[in-house]
Design brief:
Helix content is 46%, strand content 10%. It is α/β, with parallel strands linked by helices. The chain folds into three domains: 2-115, 2-Layer Sandwich (Chitobiase, domain 2); 123-436, Glycosyl hydrolase family 115 (TIM Barrel, Alpha-Beta Barrel); 457-664, no CATH class. Helix 1 (17-33) packs parallel to helix 2, helix 13 runs parallel beside helix 17 (522-552) and helix 16 packs antiparallel against helix 17. The mean pLDDT is 94.
């Protein structure tokens, strides 16, 4: 046995930034786990061995030292983190899950040889997309510390590539990611990682046919900025946002798949030329995402077979094209073994679609489902490139942990993964294991497909859409046709209500189960918070529907109350998010602005105010008298009001007190 104690030395002559970073992380891990020791025996040595395969390592353990052999920076990084995980017990998501450690005097490492596992996926990593929670929460008050821990988690998972943020954030973080050993690639709407045309030239129309030289200049500049990094160059041409470039074009230039495909081909060839002139042996990829997959599937887009073709799931884990607005073709996007050249995938464990996806709660489909889908990707030749949308990391660690096992070829299941995850990051209690395992089946199933399970956006987005439609006098909400069809507003409200009502009992049951176990670890805290967000979201929909129906029946006081209850439900969910912030994560959800529970409550309160105008009198004193004056004073009108006019919230609280007393007696 090698005895590893607090005085064990780490010796290396390799001074590259990735290796130095990993060694410093190991020293930090030792300080957390191993008590200080006066001993000076034993060493961990890093030894360069050129013959070792790229990214691989070999660890030789004797009773005197541990030697890590590798021929590349990432080989050493992975070897160092292997020792940390398997002998110090520091798990890949130790920081994000606030893993608890009990210091010890020493740990033992058996003599022998450890050979690195061979991953099933060549390029495997995360896309830090919709990373709005990172905008206001900074570890130690420092931007780079936050991202350093995010990239470290990816490396500990065996990842080797990242899209290190969206838009300007990605450009800001590329150097840090590269210095930690990661390859860099780019957002499917940011070719070559270049600055967006609309930002560089805000006074010009972002039209390639009008300004090809300016587009090429931006692309060339981006290549120059990154050519000393290891990059998988993303070739693409979508638009100035996460949407097709032909959206809004009325000229007819791009009114057929053939015209769109020819335009994309032309731009991709030009981008290849720009990179190849500046970079030796470049690696290229292109994203067949959404509408681009439809063009490719129709045979209207031809690509160089050497480019890695990256196909995408629909945002809910199924390898079909995504739904956009009310358009949902579900074109098969599985890698095709007949398609020449390398293939990969862009996969979501977090998604933001303004309809029904998950951003602050985890993927609403099962680990069994994800495992089947991703192993089919491997079986069909899609093991060259995986980029997983990880959003802000913390809400999605459960599925990120599952995917990192799969990209090493493991089979995982709801049964096995829930147990291992709770054992790694919690106290192993059955209540938490059960909650993680049952969570996907308790979410709302909104459509006929296996993957049609909803995240929190089903409640937040659609409540806001319905509220806006009521306030603007709309007859129906076009933005909800994907869910309800083109029907009257009342039917749209009923549809959403029925879907949530069907799922509510099981989700509420999970909430009660986990509440009774008194969550203490971060593992329980995370699943409890997410279950509560769903439960309150379903309740919010129920109260909104009751309020709307009462409004239609001109029972305005009841309508006012139920809309207030809807707002209160979303406020409870928001408060729980903020209450779940602990230690280093104080303020983590402060910028929760995409699902935006608090704004959903705000919109419900706006409808409350509208209902008050319908039901109260022009001077706003009738409901005041009925609710806040004693019976003997209500009919005496020598004074119109006796106090300041109540706000909607004050009136709601007074009505609730009266309602609860009435219900009680």
């Amino acid at each position: 046995m090698f005895i590893w104690h607090g005085g064990t030395r780490i010796e290396t002559e390799i001074d590259t930034p990735p290796v130095k970073n990993a060694v410093e992380a190991l020293r930090r891990d030792m300080e957390k786990i191993l008590r200080k020791s006066g001993e000076e025996t034993g060493a961990i040595r890093l030894i360069a061995e050129k013959e070792t395969e790229e990214e691989a390592y070999r660890i030789e353990v004797t009773d005197e030292e541990i030697r890590i052999y590798a021929g590349s920076d990432l080989g050493f990084v992975y070897g160092v983190f292997y020792l940390s995980e398997h002998y110090l017990g520091v798990k890949p998501f130790w920081f994000w899950m606030r893993q608890e450690f009990t210091p010890v005097d020493r740990v033992t490492v058996p003599e022998g040889t450890i050979v690195s596992p061979r991953p099933a996926v060549r390029f495997r990593g995360w896309f830090f997309n919709d990373e709005v929670l990172f905008f206001k929460w900074h570890l130690n008050g420092r931007h780079d510390d936050t991202w350093r821990m995010a990239f470290e988690a990816l490396l500990r998972c065996g990842g080797n590539i990242a899209i290190p943020g969206t838009d300007q954030e990605s450009r800001r973080n590329k150097r840090l990611a590269s210095d930690m050993g990661l390859w860099i690639t780019h957002h499917h709407a940011e070719p070559l990682g270049a600055e967006m045309f609309a930002r560089a030239y805000p006074d010009l129309e972002a039209d390639y046919l009008k300004h090809p030289e300016l587009f090429c200049e931006l692309w060339a500049r981006a290549v120059e900025e990154q050519k000393d990094m290891r990059v998988v160059w993303n070739l693409s041409f979508r638009g100035q946002g996460d949407c097709p470039f032909w959206d809004g074009d009325r000229s007819g230039r791009f009114d057929t798949p053939e015209k769109r495909g020819r335009m994309i081909e032309e731009v991709i060839r030009k981008q290849q030329e720009i990179v190849s002139e500046r970079v030796e042996n470049p690696v290229f990829c292109t994203n067949l995402y959404g509408e681009v997959m439809e063009i490719y599937d129709a045979g209207c887009l031809s690509l160089d077979p050497g480019i890695i073709k990256v196909r995408a799931d629909n945002g809910f884990g199924r390898m079909v094209t995504r739904r956009r607005d009310n358009h949902c073709e579900r074109v098969d996007s599985m890698p095709d073994p007949r398609d020449p050249g390398p293939q990969g995938i862009y996969y979501h464990v977090s998604f933001y679609d303004l309809q029904a996806a998950n951003h602050i709660t985890m993927l609403p489909n099962s680990v069994d489902f994800v495992n089947r889908e991703l192993h089919e990707v491997l079986a069909k030749g899609g093991g060259d490139f995986w980029i997983v949308n990880c959003s802000n990391v913390k809400p999605h660690v459960y599925y990120l942990d599952a995917v990192r096992k799969i990209w090493f070829g493991e089979d995982v299941s709801d049964e096995s993964h829930s147990r291992e995850f709770v054992q790694d990051y919690g106290d192993g209690e059955e209540e938490a294991v059960y909650a993680y395992r049952m969570y996907p089946g308790a979410t709302v199933q909104y459509g006929p497909h296996e993957d049609d399970h909803a995240g929190e956006q089903l409640y937040t987005e659609n409540i806001r859409i319905l509220a806006h439609t009521i306030l603007t006098g709309g007859e129906w909400a076009p933005a909800m046709e994907w869910l309800t069809g083109r029907v009257r507003l009342a039917e749209q409200v009923d549809c959403l209500d029925k879907l949530c009502a069907k799922a509510y009992p099981q989700m509420q049951g999970l909430l009660e189960d986990i509440e009774h176990s008194t969550p203490k670890t971060e593992c329980k805290n995370l699943i409890y918070t997410q279950i509560l967000v769903h439960t309150m979201g379903m309740l919010g929909v129920k109260y909104f529907a009751q309020g709307y129906r009462a409004m239609q029946e001109k029972d305005y006081k009841k309508a006012f109350l139920r809309m207030g209850d809807c707002a209160a439900a979303f406020e409870v969910a928001d408060m729980r998010l903020r209450h779940s912030e602990r230690g280093e994560f104080e303020g983590f959800y402060a910028n929760e602005c995409l699902a935006d529970l608090k704004h959903t409550a705000y919109m419900a309160r706006k409808v409350m105010g509208y209902i008050r105008e319908l039901g109260d009198n022009v001077r706003h004193d009738e409901w005041y008298r009925d609710t806040m004056m004693s019976p003997e004073n209500r009919r005496v009108r020598l004074l119109l009001v006796w106090d300041n006019h109540p706000t909607d919230q004050e009136l709601y609280e007074a009505m609730k007190e009266e309602e609860n007393l009435s219900n009680h007696f």
